[in-house]
Structure to design on (87 residues):
């Protein structure tokens, strides 16, 4: 009987909470990790005001971050994997 964990069934990263401060998008993941990414990695966040950045919401049961005022959605799994838009 094989008792080693199957890595292909590892649960995707999910955000427990998210916030922005000093030019960073910060997340606490449900597994306890903390992730920080510069807002400059995302074209719509790069030019957003601190006030608009502060309005980030965790949605889709932790799978996405949403900024309504700047019409931006980011997938948590993509952020954790280091997949950022080019340009």
């Amino acid at each position: 009987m094989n008792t080693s964990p199957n890595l292909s069934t590892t649960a995707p990263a999910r955000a427990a909470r998210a916030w922005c401060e000093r030019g960073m998008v910060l997340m606490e993941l449900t597994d306890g990790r903390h992730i920080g990414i510069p807002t400059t990695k995302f074209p719509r966040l790069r030019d957003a005001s601190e006030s608009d950045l502060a309005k980030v919401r965790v949605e889709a049961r932790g799978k996405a971050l949403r900024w309504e005022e700047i019409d931006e959605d980011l997938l948590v799994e993509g952020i954790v994997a280091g997949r950022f838009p080019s340009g």
Q: What stands out?
A: The first helix runs from residue 43 to 46. The helical segments are 43-46, 50-53, 76-80. The chain has a mean pLDDT of 89.
